[in-house]
Amino acid sequence: MKKLLDQILKDAIAKNVSDIHFIPLEKEVSIKFRVNDDLINYDKIEILNYSKLLTFMKFQAGLDVSNYHQAQSGQTTFKHQTLYNLRISTLPLSLGMESCVIRLSPQYYSQDSKMAGPKNFYHLMNKKQGLILFTGPTGSGKSTMMYEMVAFAQEHLNLNIITVEDPVEKRITGITQISVNEKAGINYESSFKAILRCDPDIILIGEIRDAQIAKCVIHAALSGHLVLSTLHSNDCEGALLRLLEMGITPQEAQQSIALISNQRLVTNQYGNRELAYETMYQSDIQYFFKHDYTMPKHFMKLSKVLTQMSEEGVICEEILERYT
Asked: Which residues form the Bacterial type II secretion system protein E domain (predicted)?
């Protein structure tokens, strides 16, 4: 089973795959690769071989191999030229089987993996306090943008940077990175208290998932720290409304948030990934709350950005329809 998994992973790495899907059918299991926007067929294997392979993968990721009735998620590594993180997630199905998805990503951040991100964000890394929030759906490049920002700060600004992630997605030399481990009592809240005693200049929080984390992030941003984090939302306005639902007041949002970026990674006409984004700065946030939750006329919505990209021939109509 190790040889089979190694071959699948090597083929996935060669094709620049982000996710490997194992989808049980009635008599066999379909293996598909996620490449950019598309899910492409890779291979099919027999049910019996898949059962053995799944047991091996669960063991490698530290999951309960005897539990077939609950969703599980764990992590392991794979070495092929460099180290890769494998996040292995299983899901019980009505067929009496489990589906499985492997999220594949290099363990160490590399300058070669930089996306064509907005360099005008970099000046914000000089700020002594505030929240920089990257928003969008899963797979929109939020975490990669955060890594770009802190890698820039570590390399050029000589700042003390501490991250709390669940789990750590990419390692960056010279940065203190903490991985959440609930069983060991290492969670976002306890880590925050410890971090604030370690004189950080910049704090990276993997994701704002609930009201407790939101309050910790806002408190840190208001108390003299620059904080970077991510949030799932469809647009910048939605990100602000989600924070309000989590108990953050309009005053706290206006005082603490330096920037909200909502982004998508879209495939251009040449098959390459390109970043499309809308940005809400502090002045836009203040306008939003002072004018009955409306945006200023100059604000460029993501839908308009994508429409312009389509009109300029950067992306096709199909991609435009998919993201608007």
From this structure: 196-210
- 119: confidence class by pLDDT, cuts 50, 70, 90: low
Q: How far apart are CA 201 and CA 230, in angstroms?
A: 18
Rounded distance between C-alpha atoms, residue 29 and residue 18, angstroms:
19
Distances, alpha carbon 309 to alpha carbons 165, 268, 280, 299, in Å: 33, 9, 20, 17
CB contact at 8 A, 35 and 17? yes
Strands 38-46 vs 72-80: parallel, antiparallel or unpaired:
unpaired
Segment 201-251, tens digit of pLDDT = 999 998 999 999 999 999 999 988 999 999 999 999 999 999 999 999 999
8-state DSSP, 152 = H
3-state secondary structure 175-237: CEEEECEHHHCECHHHHHHHHHCCCCCEEEECCCCCHHHHHHHHHHHHCCCEEEEEECCCCHH
Beta-ladder partners of 74 = 88
Model pLDDT, residue 57: 96
